[in-house]
Amino acid sequence: MDLNTALTKAHDEYTQQNPKSLARHQTALDVMPGGNTRSVLFNLPFPLGVAKAESCKIYDLDGHEYIDFLGEYTAGIYGHSHPVIRAAIDKALDNGLNFGGTNETEVKLAQAICERFPSIDRIRFTNSGTEANLMAITAARRHTNRSHILVFAGAYHGGVLYFSTGKKNPVNAPYDFVLAPYNDVDATRALIQEHSANLAAVLLEPMMGSGGCIQASTSFLQMLRDECTQHQIVLIFDEVMTSRLAPGGFQEAVGVLPDMTTLGKYIGGGMSFGAFGGRVELMDHYNPHLPDALPHAGTFNNNVLTMNAGLAGLTQVYTPDAARKLNEQGEDLRRRLNQLCQRAEAPMQFTGRGSMMTVHMTDAPIHSPTDAAKGNQALRELFFFDMVNSGIWLAPRGMINLSLPHNESQLNDLVDAVGAFVEQRECFL
Ligand code: PLP
After folding, report:
1. pLDDT tens profile 231-242
2. Is 274 in the pocket of ligand 1 (CB under 6 A)?
3. Does residue 210 have its Cβ closer than 6 Å to ligand 1?
4. Of 55, 72, 148, 190, which is least surrounded by CB within 10 A?
5. Contact in structure between 57 and 68 (CB atoms under 8 Å)
6. Alpha-carbon span 21 to 41, nearest angstrom
7. pLDDT tens for each residue of 172-193
């Protein structure tokens, strides 16, 4: 059997095993374009419908049970029913929603974040990581009185800041972007120097998450720090995903500090969340005490549920110790998975850091999304279906994220499922 035939067979079996998810999709097609309202949740032949989730388990509409190794693309670090988060939400509900006023919890969450992340002296909240990046970009443009933003090919910073193909993305916010190659020190330095008079900001994830869990080298980050300082460009780290990788985020782990940081995902305790922060003089562009301050609106910026769930999560659950432990667990898991691939001489690998990783169907080194794109994409798709069949919930593009409720036996189940894939699909590897 060739790979395409195996993939068609996997689609057919998936369709047969999931009649209720198929019916849900068919109903959705009548009222939503493609039956979808979040592009990343679309996969062929149709996405599985989720009936419920508990701890780190997910149950689909047809009654299958999965271990959740997606963790809502890093936002679900607490699992689905953490008692501390739940108690914080219940308590908040007792005092009412939607005040149309300031509340005490937003100050406490702001304090907790400023204490935790070394480059953040002042913080503002948004409803999403996308908005956080837009607001940070706007502060940088105002601060420098320049227009252009340097970003990296393959980067994702939100629905309107997506640079996957290198071609102009019609959905992107209409800024002037300069596209650079990730982890390429010389080429990026040359681009910064060439455009320095127009560059307001360099925006990057210190480890690309959606781009395939590809870490920036410390020398690359240090070069960006040095060039941005020299040319007075605002260096923005998008730590929407990577802030979970160490108690004070990736920046703390590598010791390279940006001027501004954007946050999102798990810091809202599982509710809609985003935030942007940085040095006082940058954040003061949004200070309403000052003349000509930029406006920053958002009905739900300080919403009661997010503020309370986020504060409880960050201060009582994802403590610095918990962050260190989860990331050590992730390092160990990724080592085991890579050893398994190497022992079988399978051309596949798991890249990443700590509690975040992505499978790639190539054993060649991966330093950029261009390297990652050389992996066999059809085989990665087959991997997804085989994992789903083994009761593993993960991203169709192969992303895996640990969450706090995972136990040793569930990690072993993932290793066993990958072992079975390597053995059974050996002919394609
Ligand atoms: N930045 C990064 C690195 C992300 O991974 C994401 C979302 O996946 C965003 C920004 C956008 O966050 P949101 O989906 O909350 O708008």
Report:
1. 999 999 999 999
2. yes
3. yes
4. 190
5. yes
6. 13
7. 999 999 999 999 999 999 999 9
Atom of ligand 1 nearest to the CA of 127: 15
Alpha helix segments (H runs only) across 79-208: 83-94, 104-116, 129-144, 185-195
CA distance 196 to 191: 8
Count CB-CB contacts under 10 A for residue 15.
13
Predicted pLDDT of residue 166: 65
Cα torsion at 147, 152, 155, 160 (round to 10°)? Answer: 20
Q: From residue 312, how far is each of 140, 327, 422 by CA, in Å? A: 31, 20, 41
Residues in a beta bridge with 224:
none
Residue 203 pairs in a beta bridge with: 236
For 179, half-sphere exposure in the C-beta direction (CA atoms, 13 angstrom radius) is 13
Strands (E), 188-341: 199-204, 207-208, 214-215, 234-238, 260-264, 274-278
pLDDT of residue 160 exceeding 70, the answer is yes
Closest atom of ligand 1 to CA, residue 155: 3
Radius of gyration for the alpha carbons in the chain, expressed in angstroms and rounded: 22
CB-ligand 1 contact for 156 (6 Å cutoff) = yes
Q: Which residue is listed with tokens 């432990």?
A: 325
